[in-house]
Amino acid sequence: MKAFTYERPTTLADAAKAIMAKPNAKFIAGGTNLLDLMKLEVETPTHLVDVNRLPLDKVEDTSDGGLKIGALVRNSDLAADPRVRKNYGVLSRALLAGASGQLRNKATTAGNLLQRTRCYYFYDTTKPCNKREPGSGCSAIGGFNRILAIMGTSDECIATHPSDMAVAMRVLDATLETVSPDGSDRKIPIADLHRLPGKTPNIETNLKPGEMITAVTLPPPPKGVQIYRKVRDRASYAFALVSVAAVVDAEGGMIKQARMAFGGLAHKPWRVEKAEQVLAGAKANAEAFAQAGEDVLAGGQGYGHNDFKFPLVRRTLASVLTTAAHSA
Amino acid sequence: MINMTNPVGPTPLDKPGLVGQPLDRIDGPLKVSGRATYAAEYHDEHPLYGFVVQAAISKGRLDEIDTTAAEKAPGVRLVLTYKNALKQGPRGTSGNPQLEGPSIDHHGQPIALVVADTFEQARAAAYLVKPRYAAEKGEYDMGSSLAKSFVPKSNNGVPADTASGDLTAAFTNAPVKVDVTYTTPPQTHAMMEPHATIAVWNGDSLTLYTANQMLMRGTDMVAGTLQIPKDKVRMVSSYIGGGFGGKLQVEADAILAAMAAKVLQKPVKVVLTRQQIFEITKHRTDTIQRVKLAAGRDGTLTAIGHESWSNNTPGDTFYESAAQATRSFYAAPNRMTAHRLVTLDLPHSSSMRAPGEAVGLLALECAMDELAAALNMDPIELRIKNEPQEDPEKGRPFSTRSFVPCLRKGAELFGWSKRNATPGQVKDGAWLVGMGMSGAIRGNPMLTAKASVTLDKNGIATVRSSMTDIGTGSYTILAQIAADMLSLPMARVRVALGDTAFPAAPGSGGSFGANSAGSAVYDACNVLRGKLLQAANLPPDSTFNNGNVTGLGRTVSLTDLVGPNGLEADGAADPGDSRKAFNQQSYGAHFAEVGVDRDTGEIRLRRMLGVFTAGRILNAKTARSQAIGGMTFGVGAALTEDLVIDKRFGGFVNHDLAEYHVAVHADIPAIDAVFLPELDDHSSAMKSKGIGELGICGAGAAVANAVYNATGVRIRDYPLTLDKVLNGWAAANKTGDAVSQRKAG
Fold it and tell me: What residue stretch is flagged as signal peptide (chain A) (predicted)?
């Protein structure tokens, strides 16, 4: 770990000033990922701006019937919020499927969105990694890649985004609120937060330098059954091999609307509109579910050890949609 | 001196007492309140901090190692490399030299130690050490290197190969047979406490506060490495946060800390990080195992063959004795076992909990399940059918063997009769449910040991021994033995362990700890009883009761007999010929029920039971903890644990506990262990056997057999992950039959 300086502002304005005052400064909230990366010198910030004292830790109702989640709301608190439990079950379940109790107590909403990949080679500074060291190569391609991406990959990177929470927020069409150091604010649909790796896997989001997520807003609760199904190697404390967040509105064996987002597949929560369009108005049967699976996986590529994710997505999706259609 | 050549006969422990009771650990309150001092916590020594720099290549040499920037970094006192390391003895059973030269034998090998005033300074400066390598091509894949395998030297006098009868002929002629190859991956011990040492020199004497399971052997290795007399080395391991074989030897933390402390003339602390432990210390090798079983139609085995390949670093002769248990487990006239070693440029492999049996039974006990299926016979009945009356290879009697009672009792308690023998038939919602079982067998060694006991004028007895407690309960069982022998309550017995200043005991490893140190404590107490009787002028048939001794119509308090300075007695124990005259093993039977998600192939344990016999149980509570801990280990071995070799670069891909998956609480919903009563007076003075490793032996095979029963998919490459289940189903859909499947790539 490289020596760094540290400050703990109490206002947004001070935080914005602090992040721009020194080169290579970084925000730190829960620190559940950043500190590990700093110990390994995968991340080497020279200055940490601790945002934990900023007034961003509330979950509030919005005027349109949705929910505004402060950036510093802890994962445990968000999962336990009665409004989330009642109206956004997919989010509560996704949060509780992630990490461990201790980590969820520390981890924050914005920090969870911005956590970095769990690709083994990203953490191993003795190996090439384009995300860590642009241009050095990708060790995962041709290496052990069982947990890595099959969708939206590039020749430079096959990392996945590891969050469960983000997958649920993606299916709920969440919007991020941010402020920039110049004081301007903007709203970013969650679909536009994370980038695919392309030629620049080191650039993971569309946030601008110093731009800070202050809140995540959820639209009014969607109609239908909400499911989060996480498939993993052990029953707790394991990242998703594949996860499915689904909101399915079905009646009498017909699907009115199905929304689906996937974790464990790509550099960002994966969602395919075509698959949802095909399901809208379709009979809830195996054939429709299989077609949805094909549409979700269109254009994907396996890298050997992770080839099993293709059948796993098809099977898990069919199971989730069957359960949803039957419980509607 | 207790010598186990002759059976121990009636002892004071035969009457009901504290031994056997489920007493809480006497060190428990210290541990939960943070007052048990672990190796890294001797803060009064005010040590400097060392951080290890590791090789980034797997084979080759250092062309240059530039330490200039690190030496100039804040707080740095020393950067130790091969250029300024102390001269050390050769690598071997009494040497683990570090920073010997520029040669790199494996990925992650220590190439420098940076010592600074604080841990943070040392770690930061460690990243400033700039090595330049001349890399060479290495060999990292055992499967493609089998042609280069060789017969290893014998392990502790146990031969690599054995054979009797004519395996080939018997196998060829048998009506029912299986010939199957299983693989197990590398594994890491994943104990909670990392390897840690504080080294303190006082003149030419060295004290190491360190996490080590076998301190006497440790002083040999430290002395041999540093080329100093053994009596100048003191090792202290009062409390150890788990070992599982990973702390049997002196590792780089201790040698590097000792060298740096010598150079700086200041105490130095070195704690390995979790990531460093994976490659700097030993791991369990991967194995390839081929098992051949042949039987008549009635299930009588006619041939048993078990071959195993494992690997190690160049020059390291340890091999995984995976076929060793097969030599004793089942009767058959035609037999063969063989071990082969392959040299690979990987980190060192060595013992991990139940070396040999833990992975050997994953193959043998699944092959037995396959044979039972081929015979259309219950797997328990198949095992009972082939129960030997004596050691099947050497014809020696068993000291005790209660395998069949374990099978019968376990079947009854678990509800085995409800199992549907046809795979894939039992459903519970989205789950396919299956039951599986396996036998357990583990060698029961004993080594020479010493202990002392003092009784002071206040009636407090203190036991001393360099035995260790690695979380097993050594403190507690030794207190129970002494309490019963001296007729004292637990509150009046103290136990001091984990210090080579105390009488020599071998420590914790190979399930020999309780047999060895316990017998020495028993003997010390027996000697003390003699001294007390002498002081009381009472005959040997006097009785000790409630802190008094009664004989010849007189009752005398023990405290009145010890005098103002107390009384001390030394004890010693020796296995004698007991292991040569008798085949000594502990036994058990595992039963597992799993659910397999019919959509995702996820495997989850639903419940598990182990029924064991291991002689007299010294503490029902710590014994059960040992057993279910071992079984949990077995569940991890079956389902999740996989230290992945990068076959391009060498070294391990996953090296933290987020990606090396041991079983977590949620994976172990309902687990229990039962010990059946047994006494073995050829085993130890307590008539007990070792139990530290029995729980893992066969446990994973029971889980794997349950997965087959649930799904019809026979997976022969551990761990059994969901991708292998899906592959098995895909293959079965093509053939319309239950099939086995092999790992791709």
Answer: none
Give the nearest partner residue to A315 out of B600, B640, B745, using CB atoms.
Answer: B600
- Tell me if A315 and B656 make a contact (CB, 8 A cut-off): no
Residue B136 in any domain: the answer is no
Q: Decide which of B512, B541, B574 is a domain's last residue.
A: B574
* pLDDT exceeds 50 at position B180: yes
Residue B642 maps to a domain: yes
C-beta separation of B52 from B197 below 8 A: no
Does residue B556 come out as left (phi exceeding 0), alpha (psi in the -120 to 50 range) or beta?
Answer: beta
Chain A residue at shortest CA distance from B663: A234
Cβ contact A3–B124 (<8 Å): yes
Residue of B nearest to A236 (CA): B666
Which helix or strand (DSSP H or E) is residue B372 part of?
helix B357-375
Q: Which residues of chain A have pLDDT under 70?
A: 328
For chain B, what is the mean pLDDT?
96
Quick check: A35 contacting B, CB < 8 Å?
no
Number of CB atoms found within 10 A of residue A234's CB: 20
Looking at the 3D structure of chain B, how many domains does it have?
2
| Residue A6 near chain B (CB below 8 Å) | no
Identify whether residues B401 and B456 lie together within a single domain: no
First to last CA, chain A: 52
Contact A118 B659 (CB under 8 A): yes
Nearest to A144 among B639, B653, B666 (CB): B653
Residues B627 and B725 in one domain: yes
How many angstroms separate the CA atoms of B233 and B239, rounded? 19
Chain A closest CA to B481's CA: distance in Å?
A: 40
Angstrom distances, CA of residue A325 to CA of A168, A253, A294, B180, B638? 19, 7, 19, 44, 35
Structural domain of residue B670, as residue ranges?
Answer: 356-445+581-740
Q: Is residue B174 part of a domain?
A: no
pLDDT at B32: 96
Query: For residue B57, which residues of chain A lie inside 8 Å, CB to CB?
Result: 126
Is B693 noted as a catalytic residue in this protein? yes
Residue B216 lies in a domain: no
My answer on whether B563 and B704 are in the same domain is no
Tokens for B393?
């290879």
Q: Would you call A2 an interface residue with chain B, using a CB distance cutoff of 8 Å?
A: yes
pTM over 0.95: yes
Cβ within 8 Å of residue B495, ≥6 positions away: B26, B462, B463, B474, B475, B478, B479, B482
* Nearest-CB residue to B648 (from A143, A235, A305): A143
ipTM: 0.97
| Integer CA distances (angstroms), B313 to A192, B106, B276, in order | 49, 8, 17
B117 touches A at CB < 8 Å: no
